[in-house]
Amino acid sequence: MTVDANVDTGAGADAGTDAGTEVPGPAGMPLLGSLLDLKSDSLGTYLRAQHQHGDLVRITAGPPGMRAELYCVFSPAGAQQVLASDAARFRKDNRFYQEVRESFGNGLLTSQDEDYLRQRRLVQPLFTRRRVDGYAEAIAAETRSVVDAWGDALDGVIDVSDEMAHLALRAVARILFGTDVEATADVVTECFPIITEYVLRRGYSPANIPRHWPTPGNRRAAAALDELYGVCDRIIAERRGGAAETGAGTEAGAGTGAPGEDLLTLLAAAKSSDDGEFDASELRDQVLIFLLAGHETTATSLCFALHLLSLHPEQQDRARAEVSRVLGDRTPEAADLERLPYLTQVLKEAMRLYPAAPVIGRKAVAATRIGEHTVPAGADVILAPWVTHRHPAYWPDPDRFDPERFTPEAEAGRPRYAWFPFGGGPRACIGQHFSMLESVIALAMILRAYEFEAVDTEIPVGAGITLRTTGPARCRIRRLDTP
Fold this sequence. Notes:
12% strand, alpha+beta, single chain, 15 strands, 483 residues, three-stranded antiparallel β-sheet
């Protein structure tokens, strides 16, 4: 990752004995600090903290003896330092990542050190632009199926949060599993909410009982995990058996076969002389992470793009006109990403206002100076795209929906980390081109077929593993006389 030349990152120097000035922050309640504020509205709490105290804020939460101290970094320069220039000083060692790791495995999202580097080297050849572009047809097919079903919508009203989650899950399941899409999509729909709620409850609790204790919550989560693991293991065994019969194998960095092969087959065949290959458990870990990150993030972007366009008919009409001009009646393909700049700007602005990863956590492993202050070794560090994407120094009138913020000229005038929905640095999201490809193709086909008007003008949200709606996101739809 190239560091912006005009950004002073604090040079990653050791803090030494100079602790800088005291890090400011809200006083909170005498016994609980800001715990109740964080539990009721964490995103609003972080936003108020930046407005009142600046770009590095210390928030305390919890009772004495179990109190957490969060060092919240809100500036683009600080985000660049944590994610890129000083990334080795900030690790995924906090309680939340440990809970994700124990439920969804040690895949690319949660692994570290040599485990992560080995996984990344094996997986990277499967996420080249050429390979990802080969999934455009599958994305379009799943979008067409969902859009066609809307003709039966009751009273012409749909919940775009539910519908985009359904679409994104089917698309990623089809790409991962091919013909096994139906069974996997149904199991994920049933089991993921149970598991994610369990992870969140444990990840943000100051103390947890052991997972193996037979409490109702532990038993329910264990049953959901068993069902999810069982489906994945069965399909992996079938793929491995097929690969053994045909003698298939893919040298990392070499060609990966026909574009129609599903991603699991390619993952099962991926190997190199230095890194070996994935065993069955490692394959399941990668599959679970791809299912989690691959559908929830794209679903969030599409949901809020449609919601925002439903509130702004002028921008909706402009995006639809571009789609009609570029595509006409034909099915969109990967090359159309470059031909639909305004639609891409709409999606980027939706991701600014509603980033799928609104909060990113790290653990500081060394005392590090950020701006005028020092983050101590062992501190829990919070980055908040939700806040940085609304930073008034970089985003005038930050709550206003304005796709013009993402013209090439406007983007060139901002620091690299004023907008980072896909993270950044050496651990930037490996699937960001896939997410943009899916989002542009799906949004183009949806806008060509339907007109949207908001029923719910405000959508409450909360920070889970990803950003999630906590209320309905309904739109009234009207079928257009186009394919």
